[in-house]
Amino acid sequence: MQNSFKILQNIDLFNGFSEEEIGESIHCLKGYTKKYQKREIIFSKEAPLPTFGIVLTGTIFLSSEDITGSTFIFTELSAGEIVGETALQFTQTGVEYDVTAATDCEILFFHKENIVQPNKVICALRARIIENLFTLLLQKNQELYHKLDIVSHKNLRNKILHYLHLQSQKCDTQHFTIPFSREELANYLIVDRSALSRELSRMQDDGLITFSRNTFQLL
Fold it and tell me: Where are the domains of the chain?
């Protein structure tokens, strides 16, 4: 955990916290970290969900299968973002999607009752943690809105451009690497992989983008 403090200070859950306060809050709320390797399952669909987590490093995918068995990736989460937030509900429910490590990653977990039930543990910093949690949940809703906005485009080129511009804004640069392979990006955009590859090539020919594998440059 000691090596993670610099990362934790840049995460919205601990916005405004000193290093000492971060350590104190994790200790009194009984937080713990766990590392996952690429493609390892973090949460399985419909499994009990007693914990929620904050991604510290790496990227994870939230996905589900349709009735044909095809995988549908509906969002990706990176450092600082919340996963398993449905655990914060007062009624116990299972997660409604699979959560998988897209890359090697590390996640900071908290048990629900240590956050929402003040009689479980005594922690002077709980109120500030909860306030920052609300901010994270609002950000999560905004990310889902962006996804709906992307897939609502009927034109494939517009879908791709919208997604790439959002990634550019997120990375604060015109040159960036996305967390998806071609197949994963096709699943995320809900399009055919071959059609996606053809359109990316056309966009490069038209001078809109350049790319190599999953690294892109907006022109």
Answer: 1-150, 154-218
> Is pLDDT at 34 greater than 60 in this prediction?
yes
Q: What is the pLDDT of residues 65-112, one digit of tens each?
A: 777 777 788 888 888 888 887 766 655 566 678 899 999 999 999 888
Q: Do residues 142 and 136 touch, judged by C-beta distance below 8 A? A: no
Q: What's domain 1-150's architecture?
A: Sandwich (2.60)
* CATH, domain range 154-218: 1.10.10.10
Q: How far apart are CA 165 and CA 91, in angstroms?
A: 38
The 3-state DSSP class for residue 148 equals helix
- Give the chain's count of helices (H) and strands (E): 7, 11
Q: Which two tokens stand for residue 124?
A: 């002077």
